[in-house]
Amino acid sequence: MTTSERKPLLTKADLPLDKIAAICRRWNIHEMAVDTCQTRPPARQSAWTEPDPFAEVDLYLIVKFHSDKYEWHFNEHHFNVIKELQEVTGAKIWITDNSILEKRIAEGAEWAIRDREHRDVIYARG
Q1: d(CA 96, CA 125)
Q2: What is the pLDDT of residue 119?
Q3: Which residue in 62, 108, 112, 119 has a CA-CA distance of 20 to 30 Å to 32?
Q4: 76 belongs to a structural domain
Q5: Residue 110 has pLDDT above 70, yes or no
Q6: Global pTM?
Q7: By C-alpha distance, which of 95, 90, 74 is closest to 31?
C-alpha cells in the first residue's frame, strides 16, 4: 500500500477543470495554477510527535484573487475556497496567494521565482 508521503501529487490532468472554474468564478479568483515545483516531504522520523501537515497535501495551488494586494489572511474566505476545492477533487489542498509569491520574488527569493515560472495554469479569468 502506498503511504501519503509516497503517493504522487495531483497534476492538471487529474483535475475536474469545469468544476474548478465554477469555484474560481464564485470566489472572484483571477488565476489558479498548480504549483508543479512542490514535492512530498520525506517521511519524518518517529521522534516527531506532531504529524507533518505537508505530508498529507495532494495538490499545491497558486491563486491570484481580484487584487494584487494581499488581503486574504487565511480568513473564512480562504477556508471556504479550500473546502470547495477539496469537495470536487477529493484531495487535500494547500493554497499560496499569488501576492505573497510576488512579494517574495521582489525580495529575490529563488524558490518563488521557480514556483512562478513552473506553474501550470488551470483557470484564468478571460
Answers
A1: 18
A2: 93
A3: 108
A4: yes
A5: yes
A6: 0.81
A7: 95
